Description:
This protein is mostly beta strands and 193 residues long. It has one domain: Porin. The protein is built from 1 helix and 11 strands, in the order αβββββββββββ. The protein has one helix at residues 2-18, and strands spanning 22-30, 33-35, 47-51, 54-62, 67-75, 79-84, 89-106, 113-128, 131-146, 154-171, 174-192. Strands 1-4-5-7-8-9-10-11 form an 8-stranded antiparallel barrel.
Amino acid sequence: xxxxxxxxxxxxxxxxxxxxxxxxxxxxxxxxxxxxxxxxxxxxxxxxxxxxxxxxxxxxxxxxxxxxxxxxxxxxxxxxxxxxxxxxxxxxxxxxxxxxxxxxxxxxxxxxxxxxxxxxxxxxxxxxxxxxxxxxxxxxxxxxxxxxxxxxxxxxxxxxxxxxxxxxxxxxxxxxxxxxxxxxxxxxxxxxx
Length: 193
């Protein structure tokens, strides 16, 4: 009898540990937040910017209550830039797309609530008019995820994630580096298989 109880306890603990692991896929939508690090501030003319919605595709694997490894494709909304001169308004836009691999570190409580932080690396595609560049980025983020017990596998997430990168401009005899960032407040849904 004691052996049967021990085996039952062992298998139930293994089964409950596996509830928190698995492969997941999801998508999200949010706002775009762009910081140019003074890139447009080098002009004395008035400038206005406006950003569109961002979209994410998320795939990952959750190992346990704490650690997930996650990849994301993020299509940030275009940032529309307007430079106002005395005679006209000059318009342009900046496009950002990023591909990242990140550690998603948090803790899944029994209630299904999971606060988390994202730390990762990736690649950014940056396009501004006829100028385009790509390079490496550092991704940081914080968020809160909820997995309702009634909807096994479905999770809802709200988070802010930001990608940091550098842009180097070349003017006649000198160059200048700007440490820019683009981020998104977003909501997403994921499904764990």
